[in-house]
Amino acid sequence: KPQFEQYTIKQVIRVYKSDKEYLFAFVLKNFSFMMFIMLPVFAVILKLLYVRKNTLYINHLVHSLHIHSFSFLIYGLALAISIWIIDSDCIAFIAILFVTIYSYVSFKTVYLQGHKKTTFKFIIAGSVYSFLMFIAFIFELFISFLIF
Predict the structure, then answer these.
(1) How would you label 12-27 residue by residue, b for 16+ Cβ within 10 Å and e otherwise?
(2) What distance in Å separates the CA atoms of residue 78 and residue 95, rounded to the nearest whole number?
(3) Per-residue pLDDT reduced to its tens digit, 54-99
């Protein structure tokens, strides 16, 4: 245990003295890895929500990849627009709204259920995934801190 405490103290000093832009880039690089890990987690959430559909896990994984890829594209474009064209919080709001609507429509299209069931399952999936994403992000920050 004392070795871990010494290592932690050294890491705190290293992080404190480091170039903050480099530290941010390091954490961001690890964030993309975390998102890659979260893809099958989202597919598991979908599998649990649509267990009566007898849909194979791989189909949920493909749907997860589809939604995440679309999200990365839209958020990347929104970030580029915010950096190079217009610096506005409105761009982020529009991107989030667009991804949310698109994801809802994809749930409705893929799983062929009514608006009430789709809305309920969409909210449950989003809530559970957001909670797990928060936990994963805290874990990612902790791991990034330890290996920086």
Answers:
(1) eeeeeeeeeeebeebb
(2) 6
(3) 889 999 999 999 999 999 999 989 988 888 887 777 888 899 999 9
The amino acid at residue 14 is: R
Q: What tokens appear for 20 in the block?
A: 């903050």
Structure tokens at 139: 């874990």
Q: What is the pLDDT of residue 59?
A: 94
Contact of 111 with 50, CB cutoff 8 Å: yes
Determine which helix (DSSP H) or strand (DSSP E) holds 93, and give its type and residue range: helix 89-111
Count of CB atoms within 10 A of residue 35's CB? 17
In the three-class reduction of DSSP (H, G, I as helix; E, B as strand; rest coil), residue 137 is classed as helix
Q: At 109, which amino acid appears? A: T
SS3 call for 65: helix
> Lowest mean pLDDT: which of 76-90, 111-125, 129-143?
76-90
Tokens matching residue 19: 């170039």
pTM of the model: 0.77
**Long-range Cβ contacts of 19-27 (<8 Å, 24+ apart):** 23/148, 26/144, 26/148, 27/140, 27/141, 27/144
pLDDT higher at 4 or 82: 82
